[in-house]
Amino acid sequence: MVVIAIPSASSGGLSDKMDARFGRCQSFTFVTINKDQIKEVKTVPNPAKDEMGGAGILASQTVYNEGANEVIVGFLGPNAINSLKSLNMKVFQAPNNNLPIREVVDMHMNGKLSIIDAANVGRHHGGRGGGGGYGRGGL
Amino acid sequence: MSILKPKIICVTGGKGGTGKTLVAVNLATIFKNHGKKVLLIDGDVENPNTYLLLGAKLKSLANVEFFIPKINNEKCSMCGLCAENCLSHALLKVKDIPPIPMLNLCSGCKLCYKICPDNAIEKDSKIIGTLYESEKNEIKLMLGELKPSEARSAVIVKSLMQHLDRIIKNPNVMPDVVIIDTAPGAHCDVEELIQKADIVIPVTEPTRFGLLDLTRIIELITLLNKEYRAIVNRASLPGYKEEFSLELKRRDIEILGEIPLSQEVVESYCQGTPLMEDPSGIYTSSDAYHAFNQIYDNLLKWSDIQK
After folding, report:
1. What confidence tens digit (pLDDT) does each residue in B126-143 have?
2. Is B103 touching A (CB cutoff 8 A)?
3. Rounded (10°) angle between helices B208-223 and B241-250
4. Which of B73, B92, B128 would you mutate first to test chain A, the one with the most A CBs within 10 A?
5. Do the Cβ atoms of B255 and B214 come closer than 8 Å?
6. How far apart are CA B252 and CA B301, in angstroms?
7. Share of residues in chain A with pLDDT > 90 (%)
8. Which residues in chain A have Cβ-Cβ distances shorter than 8 Å to B97?
9. What is the architecture of the domain spanning B73-119?
10. What is the CA radius of gyration of chain A?
């Protein structure tokens, strides 16, 4: 049995679309699959979506704590991949960024998604501008 | 009892490539030629290169360390308090697993270390840079270097200034004059160094970029309530000089001196020997040599440095 978390563009669910962003998606859809059958679908709002920084880490905590062991992503930043790897989660790449979630899950069940193990965008990719700033400040 | 304190001069300038290092190194050389004990500090910790212009070799002085949290998994009760309160989200905390530090996000604030009810967070550290010292032609040099890819340059600058404080307090090694060469820009590393100075010399050039960045650095110097006078380097650059001079006048920016664009400056720069060191006496009759001496005279008149 696997539980897959998929970043979702609005309130989540199989008929929602994927959100291209992981750390700053609106919500996560959790799909439980057993013997190639969808057993359960639940949605959880993403508490990290408006964070200034570290959204990838907070979002990783959420998907882990809600029971996922696999994640399907569009864009994925360096903090997110590091967090997901630290938690031993499998990460799969969706072929494009606004597919319906049902379609992505089908592709995954048919073994059509490949595993990724490195970030495919830079930090603060999905933010609303500003935010970043690894500056000279601090201490 | 009178408290002796060296005169601290900060050479800065806003714009990159205006000649801050050129001025800092040559001023240091002139002071030394007049029998002063000089300490030159390169405060551009992201690209310290003053030593090259001085022709000096570096000797490591101290590593600069930065706090990182180390989790003692046996003590950790997995309460999650550290991760909940970490503003940088540098602690990955999921159920049933002790927090995992995400070190590239850690600001080094030590909050987790202080609030952990189980004392399960231990102080660890990583080296983010190094301080170096050197000496060439009786000029002492000190510089800090941030490791490439590290973010906290302010920590290196602070450490450099703590070393300066120690030197200033020790009468056996106390210099007469300290010259601080800053990074370009008007950011907090530059601010920290200006803050330390008695007087500030922004170096600029007669271009539109030079004027814009000069006004920015002067804004910072003024905020810090420091006295300043500008040096115009490459003063003979054609095209904008007249307008530039008028703009300085209009803004009441006082000039300490001008350095002409000259073959001799470029040559000494490329050779890595300060123009004013001039061991074989080939530059003494050049305009640039006179210009630096004029700047020195003006500097003595302006500041209360004894001849």
Report:
1. 999 999 999 999 999 999
2. no
3. 20
4. B92
5. no
6. 19
7. 70
8. 87
9. 2-Layer Sandwich (3.30)
10. 14
**CATH hierarchy code of domain A2-115:** 3.30.420.130
Write down the ipTM of this complex.
Answer: 0.79
Distance from CA of A135 to the nearest CA of B (A): 7
The model's pLDDT over A26-76, given as tens digits with 9 standing for 90+, comes to 999 999 999 889 999 999 999 998 888 889 999 999 999 999 999 999 999
B94 and A82 within 8 Å at the Cβ level: the answer is: no
B70 versus A135: the higher-pLDDT residue is: B70
Q: A118: which 2 tokens?
A: 């490195």
Using the CB atoms, write b or e for B169-184: b if 16+ within 10 Å. eeeeeebbbbbbbbbb
Contacts of A134 in chain B (CB under 8 A): 151
Type of residue numbered B160: L
Tokens read off for B84: 């909940």
CATH of domain B7-64+129-302: 3.40.50.300
Residues of A with Cβ-Cβ distance to B189 under 8 angstroms:
136
